[in-house]
Amino acid sequence: MADEKTQPKTEVKTEAQQSHPLGKKVELEREYIVPLKEKILVAVEYKRARKAVKVLKEFIAKHMHVANRDTRLVKLDKYLNQELWYRGIKNPISKVKVKAKKIAGVVYVELAELPAYVKFQKQKDENRANRVVKTNLKHDAEHDHVESNNQEDKKDEVEKEKAVIEAGLKENKAEAKAKKHTTNASHEKNTTPHRQVLQR
Question: Same domain for 56 and 128?
């Protein structure tokens, strides 16, 4: 009995119970095959891909129980959007398999099965993002090192400026003292010439 109480219980979490990268708990997770063809064919030819996006958002809002079926609370993944648009505006795909996750009232939709070229593109984007993060970390580390050097340099500069100011004050005092003790210092003639206009 004592051994059972001391051992920690391990719980296996399903994907729906795990937390989302945004730090919030997944409320609802489902997969759908969304039929787009019927409603797309109603739209004008040059607006069909745009209509496909709207139909997909409306379908997800209805089936994931979004408040007031607000399509602004349905967020499509970058790769899902590319999948809808890759054949152009006039000829979007007729159906798509998606995975939807509801987190804090907002539904995030992504492709359920990624095609090979999309997997490659996604990996490429992740690598690029990792490189950016690494360079930012390096830059921050260098910046911190430079700041510490800059602080030392600033202290040295401040000390030099103080020394220059003190030397300047000493020189000014010495000049004033020398001028005071010279003859005719108080009786110096004003040698500035008067302007003729003022003399009239």
Answer: no
